């Protein structure tokens, strides 16, 4: 593993942790934007708009958390397939017992 790979892996983990921490500090049905996590992780790395470079890594971190069953990605208030999501997304804690695997829909 190269140092760039390690840095990307570390940043990805920090983004995952930031997503979960931000959601922990909000209500059970609240959502966050991937930019919230990007800004939280970038905050210690300087001023300016550098957090924007973390937007796609933040979206990837959210997709990993979907796979782990921790969060859902939404658009327009509806859960969407992370692979099909285009444009602005929101992230919320996974709703237990209401996912597609349970046969329920929103």
UniProtKB/TrEMBL annotation:
Q: Cross-referenced SUPFAM superfamilies, in alphabetical order?
A: Winged helix' DNA-binding domain
Segments carrying the region annotation (Disordered) are 76-106
Biased composition annotated in UniProt, kind: Low complexity: 97-106
- Please identify the protein, giving its name as recorded: DUF3253 domain-containing protein
Q: Looking at the record's lineage, which domain of life comes first?
A: Bacteria
Q: Which InterPro entries match?
A: DUF3253, WH-like_DNA-bd_sf, WH_DNA-bd_sf
Fetch the Pfam families from UniProt: DUF3253
